[in-house]
Design goal:
79% of the residues lie in helices and 0% in strands. The protein has 109 residues and is mainly α.
Length: 109
């Protein structure tokens, strides 16, 4: 328990990638629940006698949910990319700390 509190209070490791994963799964669950509600609405529309709207909704809901899911994944990957770039730049900085002075024979541009 003590290590969890220490990891939250220290800034040695970013919390962003973990938070992006949590937000991704919550959003994906929201898309699935919204799609299930829309399909239920389509079934009720068919049961109510509105066959045109019910049939169109039955066809459109899976397509819209698939597009929404891909778009949500893309947005979360963009946020993840920002955090991964930050970590990669830290690795580059750490690798360059051992570099000596520039070569005096290197031409200047």
């Amino acid at each position: 328990m003590n290590s969890i509190v220490q990891s939250l209070l220290s800034f040695d490791r970013l919390l962003g990638p973990t938070l992006v994963k949590i937000v991704y799964f919550v959003g994906a669950a929201g898309i699935v629940l919204g799609g299930a509600f829309a399909l239920l609405t389509a079934i009720f529309s068919l049961a109510g006698g509105n066959f045109g709207a019910g049939l169109m909704q039955l066809l459109a809901v899976p397509a819209v949910c698939a597009v929404a899911f891909v778009y949500w994944r893309f947005l979360c990957e963009l946020f993840m990319l920002a955090f991964l770039a930050y970590e990669r730049l830290g690795e580059v900085r750490d690798a360059l700390t051992g570099v000596q002075a520039p070569d005096p024979n290197h031409p200047q541009f």
